[in-house]
Task: structure prediction
Amino acid sequence: MTGMLIGLAVIAVIIIAVVVMYNGLIKARTYTEESWSQIDVQLKRRNDLIPNLVNTVKGYATHEKETLSRVVQLRNQLVDQTSNPNPTTDQREKMMETSNQITDSLKSIFALSENYPDLKANQEFTKLMEELTNTENKIAYSRQLFNSSVASYNIKLQSFPSNLIAKMGNFQQVNYLQVPEEETKAPSVSFDK
Amino acid sequence: MLYQQIASNKRKTIYVMIGFAILVLFIGAAVGYVFYNSAMAGVVMAAVIAAIYMGMMIANSTNVVMGMNHATEVNESSYPELWHIVEDMALVAKIPMPKVYIVDDPSPNAFATGNSPKNAAVAVTTGILSRLNREELEGVIGHEVSHIRNYDIRLSTIALALSSAIAMLVNLGMNSFWWGGGRRRSNDDNDNGGLEIILMLLSLVLVILGPIATTIAQLALSRNREYLADASSVELTRNPLGLINALRKISTSEPMKAADPSSAALYISDPFKKKRSMAHLFDTHPPIEDRIQRLEKM
Result:
């Protein structure tokens, strides 16, 4: 009788442990998806802002057609890339690559604004500059958040005993987003210097 | 490490509350005995005043503290850069967006307050906005947001409420002593003079030292938390240099005018720039040089 009770208790404890670990894995995985969508929101927001920027700059900086068309082209490329609601790791990497290129060309647009005092004095332009700086920084910070949530998810996948549950539930490892060399130093971008 | 720190902060809040509450009642008894000739009356008065202050603080600490420091709430459209930085830091620290306040003061400084991350606020001076660049401001806001995430704000809010209650109590007693005075003297003809004099002296000592003791306790609590918030800030921004430069700029500036003395411990750096006391007992913050040194090692 007591033997059976002990057996039942052990089974109950095991079941509870399995449920808790399974839920923990689901939670961690959902969190990585959520933090990816944070990045996605900011990428799309920047895609919306770039045409406004180009329109504002066009009127003042007539000699900079090349820089402007490059940013528009990259932006359109990113719009295509972000249209997939469930991107694979490869697609994510490609999106981040385009995003980095956009960051660079935005930097050069803000740098060339130094040559056009009228543009720099334009209120619409200063507003856009702050908005874009904001999205740039948010992209950097949500990438940091994504990587830290991926780290805690992957640790769960690999450590015992939750790795057993992960195998049974077919949980897949998520890859980190690679950070380009220069950005590892300081994630924050400031155009206003 | 961080979670342990948060748990220990929540636990310490309870110890601080109990310790402070006992001290408040003792000081109340002393004030009652010295100024009103009845220890019991003092205890009741202390309990009522402390209850009112605590209630006020717990119900809406943000408004009270912001009011004491002459801060006004702002929104995204009036201070876009500041707003966006607070948003960024709240995002990485995984806390809800706090309210944002501005203190109109040319001296650069900042503080955070509230009961919990859900109900928190950060305030910065106009001076900090004009002197710091974006990276430096990020370091400062990262520091304040860390105070919120680590529950330092709850601990310091409760400590602030109780030390204000003690200050209020002693002031009340002093006032009635000067203006309603003489009540005490009429009893001096009593025979049991010896015991009464000792009690009287003890009470006076308590009345004088009480506020000092609470200040020391409040400050010790606050000093240790600054190092942790500095480290957490760097964890959020990944950019120690921003905070280092911000601290340098803040340390070489003039003192604040708008700050409230009892909330000095809340600020990122001592708003009054007092000379360092020998034993560092009255410092609200660790020396800035020490903080910079620790950041440089990161």
